[in-house]
Amino acid sequence: MLTKRIIPCLDIKNGRTVKGVNFVDLRDAGDPVELAKIYSDEGADELVFLDISATEERRKTLVNLVREVAATINIPFTVGGGISSVADVEVLLQNGADKVSINSSAIKNPQLINDLASKFGSQCVVVAIDAKQIDGQWIVHLMGGKVPTELNLFDWAVEVADRGAGEILFTSMDNDGTKNGFANEALSKLSTLVNIPIIASGGAGNMQHFVDSFNSGQADAALAASVFHFKEIEIKSLKQELRNNNIAVRL
């Protein structure tokens, strides 16, 4: 049986970890290098690092920070933000990333998914999808959730899987930062539509929410930020609770 994964997420802006609600009202959550080491030591299965305001001018800062974080952890490390080419990915992998996460660039240029999967292998390519419900439909957004597209979440998920993505990181913008639980109905539908792992993101507030994401949502991994950053949930305790609920995890 494949174990379920717990993944802390470092949202980075100007070199600091930040966290907001529904993608806005960001507040400082600490030094990313320090947090990364803590999570690695506490038993996180992977770490995700997203430069949420990446621009070409900030690329060097991003790479330096990626290198620093990679040097302090011993778990798989996914990096996203401002990635738009094969060359961008090569630089990040050379500096310690194990996987990359693409979002807006994949929407603007879907062929990028194919190119990255062909060059580096599907296991290296995570496609992040930010979506919110509009008139009963899950609509994909880009540019850090600021710009709605005409893409439907489920249609886009099937396409990215067909193009060679190794995983999908689905964030419900409606649930993000609310601590009311993950979007389990959408997660469950995603897991039945594609045969690649689905990472649940957006809405974790307590341990039961993680249990529900794996049971009701059928997610393969659950990602969270503020509940870990602000010490509301400890990873070791969470994993023990998951095991108590007959969910296979690595302790």
Question: If you had to describe this structure to a student in words, what would you say it looks like?
Answer:
- It is built from ten helices and twelve strands.
- It is α/β, with parallel strands linked by helices and 251 residues long.
- It has an eight-stranded parallel β-barrel, surrounded by seven helices.
Beta percentage is 25-35%
What is the domain total for the residues?
Answer: 1
The beta-strand count equals 12
What would you call the structural class? alpha/beta
Biggest sheet strand order reads 1-4-5-6-7-10-11-12
Q: Give the CATH H-level superfamily.
A: Aldolase class I
Order of helices and strands: EEEHEHEHEHHEEEHEHEHEHH
Number of helices: 10
Per the CATH scheme, the topology name is: TIM Barrel
- Poorly predicted residue ranges: 55-60
Largest sheet: 8 strands, parallel, barrel
How far the N terminus sits from the C terminus, by CA atoms, comes to: 15 Å
CATH class: Alpha Beta
Overall radius of gyration: 16 Å
Shape: globular
CATH-scheme architecture: Alpha-Beta Barrel
* Overall pLDDT metric: 91
In short:
This protein is α/β, with parallel strands linked by helices. The chain is 37% helix and 28% strand.
Keywords:
TIM Barrel, 10 helices, 251 residues, 37% helix, 12 strands, single chain, alpha/beta, globular, eight-stranded parallel β-barrel
